[in-house]
Structure formats: structure tokens, C-alpha cells
Design a protein that fits this description.
Elements (H helix, E strand, L loop, with lengths): L12 H24 L3 H12 L9 H24 L3 H6 L1 H18 L3 H7 L4 H10 L10 H32 L5 H35 L3 H4 L1 H22 L3 H14 L14 H6 L7 H8 L1 H18 L9 H27 L8 H10 L6 H11 L4 H14 L5 H35 L7 H12 L1
Helix pairs in contact: 1-2, 1-15, 2-15, 3-7, 3-12, 3-15, 5-6, 5-8, 5-16, 6-8, 6-19, 7-8, 7-20, 8-9, 8-18, 8-19, 9-12, 11-12, 11-14, 16-18, 16-20, 18-20, 19-20
Length: about 475
């Protein structure tokens, strides 16, 4: 009530030790699983299963709900960081193969399973896992700066937007089973129209309105306050985008990616611009320069995201897995079968990429560099396998969709729900493990190939050659 207060109670020693052990094991499990299977998120999911409702239920229920909310903020930050670090020139250059990859991931699962709800859950690509995989691979090769990485990010975003559109439809289908006066066209059309509208309007408004205004009237004032002005703008933009996405009827995760991409584009790229700096230290040291938004994210948010929010997110995924109910012979073989079907559906992307060998680049300097690279083995199949494997993980989005279908509608049986969970869980484990092995074995090769690190001038040359 207004004017009241929350009485302060010292937590018991048992509660304190439980919380300490939970966060300790989250860190240890991440380190162990990263060393053994090259996928640290699997260990964090396992800790969530053990400490949460699915197994030992050690954490109090209200704690689990709090961690789930904090973890979802961690997921938003993961995707926001992905948008901040995205190479927009690469995303634009590789939009068509990304669209083909996303279409493969969406259409094939829906055709391969018996129910629309399970198919919708399995059409998604875990954005959180995708960006976690990209981050974990950065010590070997910065996938965010590679051609295959840009295709992966674009395809994963498109997949999840479609999956979350389906989740909105499925959630509203529950109303259909309980009410007679429901507008089916509005249920299906609203999330689709909202997603398409945001995808089209955001780059147009950014390029022709917000970027010119920011560069002319605001940009040079940021050098005075450095990180403070950056973090305020970042928070405002992120909150604005996820609020627009939520109220429009599409996914807040899509909104968070668009927010990061928006902030990446609006600063001027001219040498005299405050945001054109060689390092974070230069932006902080020189009076007429400012750290970039990526630098501010690293300074203010990277630590809390990496050591608190992200582990809580993957632990909360573990909270949502009905672990005990998975272990019957019938459910196991069905789950494994669906896992194989879904893995094959996603890895069909590999065949498409192998058929799309990058075209030779023109220009004397580039041709000379290409002649040197002819001595190296092709990395096409490794890049295609990396892309297909990274898109196998369904993760949090798949679990969200299938739980909406099970808890909010009467159309999904318990057996269908368990089978779908098996497929989502195994795919989420298999994908990052295979990616980790591929990056450790072929990361440098992929980074040096045509599917690897891309210089901006090479991307522009390729775009000009395609236009001509």
C-alpha cells in the first residue's frame, strides 16, 4: 500500500549458502563444459535443471521467477550487443543468402512434424545461443566480422521473428478454444504486419531522419560527456525499441537487435567525427573524441552481462525443462528421431551455401591477394557446416513457443510437448558443441577465406560488381 515499507529481514545462513553455491556452480559449470564440449552454456543450463523445479528444486520459487526475469534482460542485452557489433554492410551484402537460410529453417521443420505448434517451436534459431557462440569463438576468429557470421546473424534474426510471430498466433489460439468472438485475421495478421513494418521503417527512418539529425545537431556534444551521454542514449533507444515492439505485437528481442543496429548506424563515419577512434582509450583521452557505443557497452554492461545476466538466462532455460518427464523409452526415441529430423532440416542450409561459392573479386590489388589465396584449401564446406550447425540450436525461443502451446491452448498433448522439448534440448546441445569443434579446428582457415573476415572496401567492390 502507499506509504508502506518492506520490512528488512536478514537472510538465513542456508539461503546465503544456497545463493553462493548457485552462482559458484554456474561459473564452474560454464568453465568445465567450455573445456570439455566447447559449449559453456550447456553447463549453465544443467545447473538450472539441478537447482530449479525440474530436479532438486533447491532455489525458492520466487527466486527462480526473479532469476528468469533477470535472465531475460540478459538475453535482451546479448542480442542488443549483437546488434551493436553487427557489420551492417555485410548484413546488407548477404541479405539474400540469409533469407534463403532462414526460409530453410522455417519451412522444413513445419513440414517435418505433425503439429503446427511443435513445428513453430522447431523453426526458431536461438538468438541467445547464436550470439553466445559468436562471442565464445572470438578468441579464434571474430565471427561477427565474417561473411558466414553475418549470414548466421541475419538468418537467426529472421528465423526468430517468424517463430515469435507464430508464438503470438499460438498464444492467441488459446482464446479461440475458449471464446467464440475472436478475430482470427487480427490474431494472425498483427504480429506479421508489426514485424514487417519495423523491419522496413527502422532502416528508412534511421537513414533519412534520425542519422542526419544526430550527426548535425547532437553528435559533437557527446565528446563532452563521453560514456555518460552514450549510456543514457543507449538505454533510451533500447527501451524505446523494445516498447514499440511489444505494443506493436512483435518480439522485444527483435526490437533489441534493431536498437543495437540503429546505434551502430547513426554516428558519422567521417574522420573528424567524435566516434571515429582507434581505441577506447583515445575516445576517453581526447577532448574532441568520444568512445563508441560498443566501447560504452564494454565499460558499463559487459561485466554484469557476462558474469550475472547471461548465466542467469541460460540457468532459467534449465528451469523450464521438464527433466524427469523426459526419461521413458518411448519419449527418448521419439525425441532423438525428431532431433535428427530437425538437425537435417537446418543443415540443408549447408548444401545451399556450398552451391553459392563467392564470386572472384575484381581489381588489381584484390586479384593479387586472391592469387595468393589459391594456394590455400577452400573453406566453403567448413563455413557451410559451421552455419548449419550454429542454426541447429532452438534454445530459449523454441522452449518459449512450445510452452505457450502447451500451457495456453488445448491443442498440444503432453506426449507432443515432451517430444518437442527433447528435440529442442538436444539440438541446443548439439549445435554449440559442433560449432566449438569447427572453430577450434578450422577457425583460422574460415577467417582467411572468402567466407571469413571482410574488409569494408572488399564488400563495397563486391556490391558494385553485383550492381554492374
Amino acid at each position: 500500500m502507499a506509504g508502506g515499507f518492506l520490512p528488512y529481514h536478514e537472510p538465513s545462513i542456508v539461503q546465503i549458502l544456497i545463493l553462493i553455491s548457485f552462482f559458484l556452480f554456474l561459473s564452474l559449470a560454464e568453465w568445465v563444459s567450455a573445456k570439455i564440449i566447447r559449449a559453456g552454456l550447456i553447463g549453465q543450463i544443467a545447473v538450472g535443471i539441478i537447482y530449479g523445479v525440474p530436479l532438486a528444486d533447491i532455489l525458492e520459487h520466487n527466486w527462480q521467477e526473479t532469476f528468469l526475469a533477470l535472465g531475460y534482460i540478459g538475453l535482451i542485452l546479448i542480442i542488443f550487443e549483437g546488434g551493436l557489433g553487427a557489420r551492417l554492410d555485410l548484413l546488407k551484402q548477404n541479405f539474400v543468402p540469409s533469407l534463403l537460410g532462414a526460409a530453410t529453417g522455417v519451412v522444413l521443420p513445419i513440414e517435418a512434424v505433425e503439429t503446427f505448434i511443435i513445428g513453430s517451436a522447431l523453426c526458431s534459431t536461438s538468438l541467445g545461443t547464436t550470439f553466445a557462440v559468436i562471442s565464445s569463438a572470438s578468441k579464434t576468429v571474430d565471427l561477427a566480422q565474417t561473411r558466414v557470421g553475418s549470414i548466421l546473424v541475419s538468418a537467426a534474426v529472421i528465423d526468430d521473428v517468424v517463430g515469435l510471430v507464430f508464438s503470438s498466433i499460438i498464444g492467441d489460439l488459446g482464446e479461440l478454444s475458449h471464446q467464440n468472438h475472436v478475430n482470427l485475421g487480427w490474431i494472425i495478421g498483427r504480429p506479421i504486419v508489426a514485424s514487417v513494418a519495423m523491419a522496413i521503417l527502422t532502416p528508412l527512418l534511421t537513414k533519412y531522419i534520425f542519422a542526419p539529425l544526430f550527426r548535425r545537431f547532437i553528435e559533437f556534444h557527446f565528446a563532452r560527456y563521453d560514456h555518460i551521454s552514450n549510456i543514457i542514449l543507449m538505454v533510451l533507444v533500447l527501451c524505446a525499441f523494445i516498447s514499440i515492439a511489444a505494443y506493436a505485437g512483435t518480439s522485444v528481442l527483435f526490437g533489441s537487435f534493431l536498437a543495437g543496429s540503429f546505434l551502430t548506424y547513426i554516428p558519422s563515419k567521417r574522420p573528424e567525427s567524435p566516434f571515429v577512434v582507434m581505441s577506447r582509450e583515445q575516445g576517453e583521452r581526447e577532448e574532441d573524441k568520444s568512445p563508441t557505443f560498443v566501447h560504452t557497452f564494454e565499460a558499463y554492461l559487459m561485466g554484469v552481462q557476462a558474469y550475472l545476466m547471461e548465466p542467469l538466462f541460460f540457468a532459467s532455460v534449465g528451469f523450464a525443462i521438464p527433466f524427469v518427464g523426459l526419461w521413458t523409452g518411448k519419449r527418448i526415441w521419439r525425441g532423438v528421431l525428431y532431433t535428427l529430423l530437425m538437425a537435417v532440416a537446418k543443415k540443408k542450409r549447408r548444401r545451399q551455401e556450398e552451391a553459392k561459392e563467392p564470386e572472384p573479386q575484381t581489381g588489381s590489388a584484390t586479384a593479387e591477394r586472391r592469387s595468393d589465396e589459391t594456394l590455400k584449401p577452400s573453406a566453403t564446406w567448413q563455413s557451410a557446416l559451421l552455419l548449419g550447425s550454429a542454426m541447429v540450436a532452438r534454445g530459449e525461443i523454441g522452449l518459449l513457443i512450445i510452452e505457450i502451446g502447451y500451457n495456453q491452448t488445448d491443442y498440444l498433448s503432453e506426449e507432443g510437448f515432451i517430444t518437442g522439448v527433447w528435440a529442442i534440448l538436444l539440438n541446443t546441445i548439439i549445435g554449440p558443441v559442433v560449432v566449438g569443434v569447427l572453430v577450434s579446428q578450422y577457425g583460422h582457415l574460415i577467417g582467411e577465406s572468402d567466407w571469413g573476415l571482410q574488409r569494408e572496401e572488399d564488400v563495397e567492390q563486391r556490391g558494385d560488381s553485383h550492381r554492374h
